[in-house]
Amino acid sequence: MSGYVTYEETDHVVTLTLNAPEKRNAISTFADCDAVVDAVRRVNRDRSVRAVILTGAGTAFCAGGDLKAMRDRRGIIEGSHADLRENYRRGVQAMANALYDCDAPTIAAVNGPAIGLGLDVACMCDIRIASETARFAESFIKVGIVPGDGGAWLLPRVVGMSMACELSFTGDQIDAQTAKEIRLVSRVVPAEGLMPAARALAARIAANPPEMVRMTKRLLREGQHTRLSTLLEMSAAFQALAHSTEDHKEAVNAMLEKRSPSFTGR
Question: Which keywords, in A-to-Z order, does the entry hold (predicted)?
Answer without folding.
Answer: Lyase
